[in-house]
Design brief:
CATH topology: Four Helix Bundle (Hemerythrin (Met), subunit A)
Order of helices and strands: HHHHHH
Largest sheet: none
Shape: elongated
Keywords: Hydrolase, Nuclease, Toxin-antitoxin system
Protein name: DUF86 domain-containing protein
InterPro entries: HepT-like (IPR008201), HepT-like_sf (IPR037038), Type_VII_TA_RNase (IPR052379)
Pfam families: HepT-like
CATH class: Mainly Alpha
Family: Belongs to the HepT RNase toxin family.
CATH architecture: Up-down Bundle
CATH superfamily: bsu32300-like
Structural class: mainly alpha
Strand content: under 5%
Length: about 160
C-alpha cells in the first residue's frame, strides 16, 4: 500500500473533509491568480485593488496549501513541519508530490513570507511574473496530487503514483 492509501486508517472522515476544504480554498485563490496573470502586467501594477488582490491570492493559496499539507504530514510523520517551506519539502520526501512541484510551492511560500513580513518591499510585477511563470502550473499539479492522495486515503487504496525524493 502506498503512502496515501496507508493514511486511510489514520484520517477520520472529518479530517478528510477539512483537507478537502483547504484544497477548495486553494483552488479559489488559484482561480484569482490565474485571472490576474491573464491581465496586462501594467494594468495590475497601476491598480491598487488588483495589486492587493494579487497579494491576498498568493497568501491564501499558500496558507490553504500548507494547511492541507500539515494535516497530511501530521498523520504521516506524527510531527508537524516547522515551516511553510518544510511542509512542501516533506511532501516530496514522502513521495506525495514530485520534487519540481514541491520546490515551486516552496518558492511561493517564500513569496508569501515576503508579502507578510516585508510587504512594503514587494515588487508586484515580480510577484505576478513568478506566480504566472511556473507557479500556476505547479499549484495545479500540487492540488491535483493532494486531491488524488485524499481520495486514495478515503478509500484506503494504494497510491497510484509515488515519487522518489
Amino acid at each position: 500500500m502506498g503512502v496515501c492509501g496507508s493514511l486511510g486508517s489514520r484520517l477520520s472522515p472529518e479530517e478528510v473533509e477539512a483537507i478537502r476544504r483547504y484544497l477548495a480554498d486553494a483552488r479559489e485563490a488559484l482561480d484569482q491568480l490565474r485571472f490576474l496573470a491573464g491581465l496586462p502586467a501594467e494594468e495590475v501594477a497601476r491598480d491598487k485593488t488588483l495589486r492587493y488582490s494579487l497579494r491576498y491570492a498568493i497568501i491564501l493559496l499558500v496558507e490553504a496549501s500548507v494547511d492541507a499539507a500539515v494535516a497530511l504530514l501530521e498523520k504521516l510523520f506524527e510531527q508537524p513541519p516547522s515551516s511553510y517551506r518544510e511542509s512542501f519539502l516533506r511532501l516530496i520526501e514522502a513521495g506525495v508530490i514530485p520534487a519540481r512541484v514541491g520546490e515551486e510551492m516552496a518558492r511561493l511560500a517564500a513569496l508569501r513570507n515576503a508579502i507578510i513580513h516585508r510587504y512594503w518591499f514587494i515588487d508586484d510585477l515580480r510577484a505576478l511574473n513568478e506566480a504566472a511563470r511556473g507557479g500556476i502550473k505547479a499549484v495545479e499539479e500540487f492540488l491535483h496530487r493532494l486531491e488524488e492522495c485524499i481520495e486514495e486515503a478515503a478509500r484506503g487504496e494504494a497510491a497510484t503514483t509515488q515519487y522518489a525524493p
